[in-house]
Amino acid sequence: MKIFQATPPDIPRVAPLFVQYRQFYHLPAEPEAAEAFLQERCTGGESVLFVAQSETGEVLGFAHLYPLFCSLALRRSWLLHDLFVAPSARQQGVAQALLERADRLGYDTGAAFLMLSTATDNQRAQALYERHGYRRDLEFYSYIKPL
Predict the structure, then answer these.
(1) What CATH topology corresponds to 2-131?
(2) Which residue(s) pair with 75 in the sheet?
(3) Domain spans of the chain, in order of start
(4) Three-state secondary structure of 90-104
(5) pLDDT tens, position by position, for the chain (147 residues)?
(6) Strand order in the sheet with 48-53
(7) Which whole-number Å values give the CA distances from 1 to 5, 60, 116, in the listed order?
(8) Greatest CA separation for the chain
């Protein structure tokens, strides 16, 4: 397996898996809009998209991170917003490899921390994150204001 940072030409190969990710969260597929969204983030340098690929070139999974800054730590931080592994590639270390690559991005950029959110009923993901060293925030509540 190879992990690499996606560039604009890679997006059409990653987009179908991104559509599956959206459907996992019960959102409409919208394949053209999903691909355009990834292209915009990648082309504009607004995010970092790591892709896991098999030896035969099959896209196995991705991790999508957005840069943030922490006023309290006076340093950069990263939001690991999306992590998804193709159902056929699960339980093969793909998610672990993507999380390790995200860690390296954090260390390489001097980040204070990586943060993520997952659905309250996604216990498999919660267990994975906790095994990888993430801990549930008990100090701060998160709020969202829909616009």
Answers:
(1) Aminopeptidase (3.40.630)
(2) 70
(3) 2-131
(4) CCCCHHHHHHHHHHH
(5) 999 999 999 999 999 999 999 999 999 999 999 999 999 999 999 999 999 999 999 999 999 999 999 999 999 999 999 999 999 999 999 999 999 999 999 999 999 999 999 989 999 999 999 999 999 999 988 888 999
(6) 2-5, 48-53, 59-70, 75-85, 114-116
(7) 14, 9, 24
(8) 45
